[in-house]
Specification:
By secondary structure, the protein is α/β, with parallel strands linked by helices. It contains 14 helices and ten strands. The protein has helices at residues 4-12, 24-34, 51-59, 78-90, 110-119, 167-179, 185-203, 214-217, 230-258, 284-296, 308-311, 313-316, 322-330, 342-359, and strands at residues 17-21, 42-46, 63-67, 95-100, 122-126, 143-149, 158-164, 266-267, 278-281, 331-334. The longest helix is centred in the last third of the chain and has 29 residues, at 230-258.
Length: 360
C-alpha cells in the first residue's frame, strides 16, 4: 500500500507509484535487483559519479562501465552516451543506463534513450538533486531515483525513493524495502566513518586504496525508510517550491558577483532547475589556492569526487576518461543556503580576487 509521503513523492516527481528507502543507494540497489540486472548485465554510470552509484551497481553483480563526461561541464554528453550504448551492444552487452542529472542540471538524454531502446537496454533516471520537480519533467524511463537528506535540495532526514508508473515493479520494490532494516544512528555513524576513511586516503595520495573499502560499503547498502522521517519529508516537500526559488535567487547573486572575476572563474551555463550548489570551473592551477583561501576565511568551498578510475582502478580500468580527471581538478562548488546573502557573497569574491591577481 502506498503511504502518504510516498504518494506525495510520486505526485511531485511525475510518477504513479513511489517506494521509499533509507538511502538513495538502497533504492538503486533494490531497483537493479528487481529489474533482473545481474552478473551478465552491464550498468553504465557517469565516470565522475558518487562512489555509492558504483557500489550499488557492483553489489547486484553487474559489470560497471563508465560514461565520459565533459571537461567543461562535468556532465554526460547525450550523443557520446548514445554512442557508448551502441558500442557496448556490438560486443553483446546489455543492461541499464543511469541517466544522471548531476548537480541539479536538467539534461537532455533524448539520443541516449533512443539508443538504449533500440538496443534493448533499460533506462533509469538518476535525479538525486530533484531537477525534475519544477517544471515537472515527464517520467520517460523505467524509474526515477530521488534522494533526500540534510544539505540536499530536498532537505529532509535521510533517504531515497524509486518513482515509477509500473505498479507491479512498485509492489516488488515495496517487498524489498520492508525486508530491509530501518536506517538508524549506528548506520549513520558507520557511513560517517567510511567517508572519513576515504577522505583520509585521498589526502594521503592513496586514492587507489579506496577500492578496498567497497567491502565495508556492502553493509551500508540496504536500508528501509524510517517511519519517523515521514512527517519531515512531507514538510520538506511542501516547502520545496519556496526553497528552490530561494536557491535560484542566491544563484543569481553569485553569478552577478562572479562576473567580475571572469574568465578565471566561469559558472557552468546549463539549465540548473534545482540548484544544489553553484558549479564553477577554473584552471587546475587556480582551483586549490582558491578553495584554500575561501576555507581559511571561513567560507564554504567544495570540490568534486575524482574520476572513479582514481579510486576504483581494478573495477574501472577499461574506462579511463581523461576529461573526468580534468574536470575533477578544475571545479569549485559554492554554497546556496541562507547563510549566503549578497554581502557574504561579495565578501567571498573579495577573498578570491587577490588570489587570482597573484596567479594570473
Amino acid at each position: 500500500m502506498t503511504t502518504a509521503p510516498a504518494l506525495q513523492i510520486a505526485n511531485a516527481f511525475g510518477g504513479d507509484q513511489a517506494v521509499l528507502f533509507g538511502r538513495a543507494r538502497s533504492a538503486l540497489l533494490a531497483l537493479f535487483e528487481t529489474l533482473g540486472l545481474h552478473g551478465r548485465s552491464t550498468i553504465l554510470i557517469p565516470s565522475n559519479a558518487c562512489p555509492s552509484l558504483l557500489a550499488s551497481a557492483w553489489a547486484c553483480g553487474a559489470e560497471v562501465r563508465l560514461a565520459p563526461v565533459s571537461a567543461e561541464t562535468g556532465v554526460n554528453d547525450d550523443a557520446a552516451l548514445a554512442e557508448q550504448v551502441r558500442k557496448l551492444s556490438r560486443t553483446g552487452r546489455s543492461g541499464a543506463v543511469l541517466l544522471t542529472h548531476l548537480y541539479g542540471f536538467r539534461l537532455d538524454f533524448t539520443q541516449a534513450r533512443t539508443a538504449a531502446r533500440e538496443q534493448g537496454w533499460i533506462t533509469i533516471e538518476n535525479d538525486a538533486n530533484a531537477s525534475s520537480f519544477t517544471p515537472q519533467a515527464p517520467l520517460e524511463d523505467a524509474a526515477r531515483i530521488v534522494s533526500f537528506g540534510a544539505g540536499k535540495v530536498l532537505d529532509a532526514g535521510a533517504g531515497g525513493a524509486v518513482i515509477t508508473q509500473d505498479a507491479a515493479l512498485a509492489a516488488e520494490l515495496e517487498k524489498r524495502a520492508k525486508s530491509y532494516p530501518v536506517l538508524d544512528d549506528a548506520a549513520a555513524e558507520a557511513e560517517d566513518q567510511l567517508m572519513l576513511q576515504r577522505r583520509a586516503l585521498r589526502n594521503q595520495g592513496l586514492s587507489a586504496e579506496i577500492e578496498h573499502t567497497l567491502v565495508t560499503e556492502l553493509s551500508q547498502l540496504r536500508f528501509g525508510f524510517d517511519p519517523d522521517a515521514a512527517e519531515p519529508l512531507s514538510r520538506a516537500l511542501s516547502h520545496l517550491p519556496a526553497r528552490l526559488a530561494e536557491r535560484q535567487d542566491l544563484r543569481a547573486l553569485w553569478l552577478d558577483a562572479l562576473s567580475g572575476l571572469a574568465p578565471a572563474l566561469i559558472p557552468v551555463a546549463l539549465d540548473q532547475t534545482a540548484p544544489w550548489r553553484l558549479i564553477v570551473k577554473t584552471a587546475p592551477a587556480l582551483r586549490d589556492p582558491l578553495v584554500e583561501a575561501l576555507r581559511k576565511a571561513g567560507f564554504d568551498a567544495g570540490t568534486n569526487y575524482p574520476a572513479l578510475t582514481q579510486s576504483f582502478p581494478t573495477l574501472t580500468a577499461q574506462d579511463a576518461h581523461p576529461d573526468a580527471d580534468l574536470w575533477a581538478q578544475s571545479v569549485i562548488n559554492l554554497w546556496l543556503d541562507e547563510r549566503y546573502d549578497s554581502a557574504r557573497i561579495t565578501a567571498a569574491c573579495a577573498v578570491m580576487e587577490p588570489v587570482l591577481e597573484a596567479l594570473t
